Amino acid sequence: MPDLLQTATVHCPYCGEAFEALLDPGEGGSVYVQDCEICCNPIRFAVDGGPAGALTVSTAREDD
Prior knowledge:
Radius of gyration: 12 Å
Oligomer: single chain
Shape: globular
Strand content: over 45%
């Protein structure tokens, strides 16, 4: 059975607004860029896998 997508509330490092981001449990340990849903600036997402399939996500400005 394929892993289901998880959601996480993240804050944009540019505008500070919170939004829901979809995370793929199979992507633990990856870094990718996705535009903010509010201000459209590029955000660097770092997704790490945790125990029992839990994911942690951190965000940063792409120009950092």
